Amino acid sequence: MHRRHPEIDPQLLSETDEQRQLRTVLRDLYAEASGVEEVRKHLATPRGYDEALWARLAGEIGVHGLAIPEEYGGSGFTFAELAVVLEESGRALYCAPLLPTVVLAANALVLSGDRTACERYLPRIADGTLTATVAGFGPDGPGRPGGSDQSREPAVTAEQGSDGWVLRGRADFVLDGAGADLLLVRAGTPAGPRIFACEPAPDTCRRTPRRVLDETRRQALVEFLGAPATAVGAAEEAEGTVSATLDTGRAALAAEQVGGSGHALDATVAFVAQRRQFGRPIGSFQAVKHRLADVLVALEAARSGSAYATACAAIASPQLPVAACAAAVVCSETFRLATAEYVQLHGGIGFTWEHPAHLYVRRARAAEVLFGTADQHRTRLAGLVGLASRPAA
């Protein structure tokens, strides 16, 4: 059972000068190269994002390697710096596969402790030349509904043949599953689940893009037809690696949601200040002020939850599962509220598909269930802190 009032250094919850500078650089870059019209344009391309900007983020700023150890080609910073990137990416609705590649796959490799796999893949993730994702880490995808993260047997199995391991089975709704260069797969073996690295080839790995609500975050059905794979990490550590990876992913998603909520609030405040009705700005009406105040209060709570989850992920705190669940609940609900008001308070223009609000609404609704629903997180959180509900008498 986790402590209800865990101790953590308050300084970890504050932004450093370096992090503020990183935020400024990223916000300027996204404003220049990744506006809403650029996002819409690149959604129509085969890969779904601006590959030139992806290379700039990796090469000029070093985004991809921020939290990767220096021995594997990274910068050796912590998840706290990466969270700044994710928040600004969420604010700009950046549509490249940062979450699956830089957060999920990179963390799974580091947490596995497999030096061979880390030396092979992490330098290429850090320099932006390799995209990666995870498959089968949850019941139907990365932490999807269906119970705890490993509550079911893996849908993918691994068989050991004369030439090594091969994978069979399928994983659905895999983030960037149709385009990733590397798949880290949780697969069942006779000795229990393990993690495998698979570099997909068309003849042994069929990848079918799924039609999803949020087109800025592509997902796919991945079918393994005897795909060659290499075991990553020790078998007895696999489930712990999967759980820690998903909790880090929840903390990352929370940071993204805070950024998106911040954009929605700022854009709405700017609009109601200049939109006039009855001879005065609509933002001067009390009812509008109250609605925006509710969003601001929720956003401040989300920032706190995200900051705590980020701090726990940065120091690999044993409180990360608690912090990640709490952040997932408060940040997803805040993002949903902020985007709903984004549409409503823009009035008729907010209901048009051409307005950027709809892209943020879709991102908010899809992110709500990406690593489990709010109710599932509350149930898990209650169990973690010893408050699980008792059966009815």
Automatic annotation (TrEMBL):
UniProt keyword Ribosomal protein present: no
Location of the Acyl-CoA dehydrogenase/oxidase N-terminal domain: 16-128
Protein name in UniProt: Acyl-CoA dehydrogenase
Keyword Membrane included in the entry's annotation: no
Superkingdom, taxonomy of origin: Bacteria
Cofactor(s) essential for the protein: FAD
Span list, region Disordered: 136-161
Alphabetical UniProt keywords: FAD, Flavoprotein, Oxidoreductase
Ranges that cross the membrane: none
GO MF: acyl-CoA dehydrogenase activity; flavin adenine dinucleotide binding
CDD domains: ACAD (cd00567)
Primary gene name: acd_2
Residues of the Acyl-CoA dehydrogenase/oxidase C-terminal domain: 242-382
Record-stated family: Belongs to the acyl-CoA dehydrogenase family.
One Pfam family from the record: Acyl-CoA_dh_1
